[in-house]
Each structure stands twice: as structure tokens, then as C-alpha cells.
Specification:
The longest helix is centred in the last third of the chain and has 19 residues. This protein is α/β, with parallel strands linked by helices.
Length: 319
């Protein structure tokens, strides 16, 4: 059974800067995890495309790019590909555009920010970026920066980080806590005035790695009206990484959230090198849906996880 898919996170923007056969990858068709040839067959598909950056303080960029250059190059390639594929895809800046695109048979492309190094950690840029269509922002990746600590480094939200969260929510941007430290997570919960999302994080009770959410974290996200997006990266799913293991995360979240209103998708596709056995890319979301149905999740619950829950958060934060 096919369900419409709204996926909160991928790293396809970065992958589009690579070459295949001597030419830059195309969003229309490529050998990665996501392309429109496959995604447009789902029967309703919206993809959040992250512009990812980190400071390059310990991992210098091989091309000598600064974080700001990397951000601009990823944004430019997304704009270029959105335009080149306009017969299949339209940008979406809010819930109403997501709805319209789906009704008219177009894939939606949504812009997000993963890590703030590329915008200079500057809350003053958020209003402009929201106008350009960016809907979601995470404060950090795996590094500690002027805003917050990460799940790798530890360290809470700084005063500058608190102001960043407040400004993001003021302009209608959703704050993403995937990659954040546990301390910074709870600091964000203390200051949030809107829904918080973990765009691509699983259950730490099912598989205990720091990138996954504790039960208390998931409950806190639920209390804000936000969602946790299920991440297909095998390193966060479990061993062996199978569709059964993937389903265990969803089923555990359903024990904590019996109505199933705070679970979504955030595959991390094109941002990881190993996926669960049986899931090879966006074309296999119907297979994942069937696996959930086979394990007792109802059709309404799966429809909510695959589209409605993330869409509801977008509705709350639309400009």
C-alpha cells in the first residue's frame, strides 16, 4: 500500500555536488538514495532538503571551502535542480504550498538548515532565510559551537543559543534537536514557545546511541506538539539493521504515544552509507509502510507517521 511521504531530512543537497560519469548529479535521476524518478511514483511526496555545514575546524574541507561557501553552494544546487525539474517538483515554503503541490501532483521540495556554521551562527539572518523558504533549523551538527553543544561534545545552550531559538520561532522556523547534546536539548525545552522536532532521530531505548532520543526526550517533544522523524541510518537503527529493527523503534514510540501523533519520517537518505536490509532508498518507503502494517500498526497510524504528523507541525509554524 502506498502512503504519501513527508520526509523531514536528507543530505541530497551535498550529494548533488558530486559527479557521476564526469557530470554533476541530477535530482531527476541518480544512483543515490533520492531522485524524482523514484520519488514521484510514491503518490504524494515531500522532501526536506538540508543545507548542511560544520566549521571545518578539525576536518578541513578538501576543496578549501569555508562553511559559508558550502552553504551557498548547496543552496545554489538545490535552486538549480528545483528549476530544472519544475515539471515534477515545486518548492514549498509552508503547509499550504505542501497541500497544493500534493493536490496538483507535484513533489514538494522544502529547504532546511543542518548546522549553523554556514550562516555564521547569526540569528539576524533567520528572517531573511525564512522568507527564502527555509522552514527548519538545527543549531549544531556534531561540534560544539557558539550556540550549543552536540551529542558528541556535550555542553548546554549558550545565551546566544537561547536568543537564536527565540528568533527562529519568532520568524516561523521550526527548531530541530537532532545532533544536539542532552543538556542543550533540555535547555531548549526550557525556552521553547512552539513545537520542537528531532528531524532524524530514533529511540535510545531500542538502540542506545547518543544520536537517538531517550523516552523522556520523546515525551518532551510530544508535549510541545512536535515530532520525531525516524532515521533509516543503520548505525542508529540497530544490529542487525533490518526492517524489523526499524519497526521496533516506531512501535516503541507508539507505546509512549499511543495515538501516534508525534512520530514522522526523517530518513537521513544520501547522508549515510548503510541502510536497513530491504530499504535501499526513497522508493522503498511503501515497503517500510507494509512492514509496519504487518506488525500491527493501523492504516491511520501509518498515514499519520508518513505525512499527517509532520504536516501538522508545518501548519503550526507557517508564516
Amino acid at each position: 500500500m502506498n502512503f504519501p511521504v513527508l520526509d523531514l531530512h536528507c543530505d541530497t543537497a551535498l550529494s548533488l555536488l558530486r559527479e557521476e560519469g564526469g557530470v554533476r548529479r541530477s535530482l531527476r535521476r541518480n544512483t543515490g538514495h533520492i531522485d524524482l524518478a523514484r520519488g514521484s511514483k510514491i503518490g504524494g511526496y515531500a522532501q526536506c532538503f538540508a543545507c548542511f555545514t560544520h566549521p571545518f575546524d578539525t576536518r578541513p574541507h578538501p576543496m578549501g571551502w569555508t562553511p559559508e561557501m558550502m552553504f551557498e553552494k548547496e543552496l545554489a544546487v538545490l535552486r538549480e535542480q528545483f528549476s530544472a525539474c519544475s515539471d515534477l517538483l515545486r518548492p514549498a515554503r509552508n503547509a499550504e504550498e505542501l497541500r497544493r503541490n500534493r493536490e496538483e501532483g507535484f513533489v514538494s521540495g522544502v529547504l532546511t538548515i543542518e548546522g549553523t556554521a554556514g550562516i555564521g551562527y547569526d540569528a539576524g539572518r533567520l528572517e531573511e532565510l525564512r522568507r527564502e523558504g527555509f522552514c527548519v533549523v538545527s543549531l549544531t551538527w556534531n561540534e560544539k559551537n557558539p550556540l550549543a553543544g552536540s551529542h558528541v561534545t556535550g555542553g548546554g545552550l549558550t545565551e546566544r543559543g537561547r536568543e537564536f531559538v527565540k528568533e527562529a520561532q519568532r520568524v516561523g522556523m521550526i527548531v530541530d534537536v537532532s545532533h544536539i547534546s542532552d543538556e542543550a536539548f533540555w535547555d531548549i525545552m526550557d525556552v521553547t514557545e512552539g513545537p520542537i522536532v528531532a528531524t532524524h532521530s530514533n529511540s535510545r531505548s531500542v538502540f542506545p546511541v547518543s544520536r537517538n532520543l531517550t523516552d523522556d526526550m520523546f515525551r518532551a517533544i510530544c508535549s510541545t506538539g512536535g515530532v520525531a522523524g525516524f532515521n533509516q541510518y543503520a548505525s542508529f537503527v540497530g544490529e542487525p539493521a533490518t526492517l524489523d529493527a526499524a519497526c521496533r523503534h516506531i512501535l516503541h514510540f507508539l507505546e509512549l504515544d499511543p495515538d501516534g501523533k508525534h512520530i514522522a519520517l526523517g530518513g537521513d537518505l544520501d547522508g549515510c552509507n548503510v541502510l536497513p536490509e530491504g530499504f535501499e532508498g526513497v522508493q522503498h518507503y511503501p515497503r517500510f509502510a507494509q512492514a509496519l502494517l504487518d506488525r500491527g500498526a493501523g492504516e491511520t497510524t501509518v498515514a499519520d507517521i508518513f505525512w499527517n504528523n509532520a504536516f501538522g507541525v508545518m501548519e503550526q509554524c507557517s508564516m
